[in-house]
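Case study: ALOG domain-containing protein.
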Amino acid sequence: MSNDHRGKDCAGGSSRSATGDPHPQPAPLSRYESQKRRDWNTFGQYLKNQRPSVSLSHCNGNHVLEFLRYLDQFGKTKVHLHGCVFFGQPDPPSPCTCPLRQAWGSLDALIGRLRAAYEENGGSPETNPFGNGAIRVYLREVKECQAKARGILYKKKKKKKNQIKVINDEVKPSKPQSA
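Here is what the predicted structure looks like once written out:
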């Protein structure tokens, strides 16, 4: 570990950098934070480009759904249509004319970042359009549709019925036992 103290003067807690600049550079953003900022700016630009433009305070789940559908045109995931001979095949042998779409995982991650950014930018969790039930339903439908089109099965994980809890090094069953 180095003894580099460019950001803070150890003795006085000053925020001057080693060069004497009273405006130190902020720490670089993580990859996640950079992507979240880019996504937030893209969504804001999308709302401004609507006719009439939509302010963030008037944004709702329908605007978010329209944004997700708009993004499909930039997708890179082949999603076979029901009439396609490759529908349900994970590795089709040749190309087809089915559309490219945004992958479900990309949309899910995007919504997670936008949901966080909304609240970080002053929105309340109760009015967060990215947490709207319609968004969750849309994402679930996209996931199921893409899984069927590509021949991939997503199975729900089942909870174990009789789990054993360990409390203070004692093994106790989670259900009371009858005598």
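For the exam, be able to explain this: The first strand starts at residue 77 and ends at 78.
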